[in-house]
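Posted in: Structural Biology > Protein-Ligand Complexes

Title: Requesting predicted complex, zinc ion in pocket

I'd be grateful if someone could produce the 3D structure tokens for the following input. Sequence and ligand are given below.
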Amino acid sequence: MSDFVELRWKRNRGWPWPEASWGLTPMFGEDGWCHSCGVPRHPQCGSLVLERKGFTKGVEGAWIPNWQFDVICLERKLAATAADRFDIELRDIDWHGTSPGDAAQIVIPTIGDAWFDPDDLRAAAVAQHGTDGTRCAECGVWRWMPLAFGYLPPLRIIPALGDVDVVASPEWFGDGWKAFRQILVRRPLAEMIVAASPRDFRVNEVS
Ligand SMILES: [Zn+2]
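-- Reply #1 --
Done. Output follows.
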């Protein structure tokens, strides 16, 4: 798995709009996400909308917004350079109010049937949280309790990832309104993003 690393975020920047949906309604449509657990019901179909606050000095580098922890945002030129070198899907970011600058997000595909052995995952979740997860009564999606690399069991990705540059796990994690997938990034892309935005990210080895 050494081709892939985690792009570990050091901070979050930006607030998805509207706050009432944690930004999900513009991205997935009013009925496109589960209002109980926050897990989308289908692929993203609209733009992430960010509030201007937090970007008064303009848009630079790359970052992860608040709430949507599996969305990677890139300033326009960085996004264009990344798209030239890597196989990534970009979508323009819209701004609520005056735009502080152009930016795009990487739309991260979910790939694989499983990234972790479920028994290992259950043991890791119970060890950290005392419980493994919950199944949403409304949409039926199972979310494992939040776990980060370092606390997650070893990767057992089935089938292998193949020729992709940024991918999300089929497993959902989260608690309450929080819902996210694990993200892996091909090392050269992660290093490029860290070089452009060292205050936002670092490369974290995974196994
Ligand atoms: Zn749900």
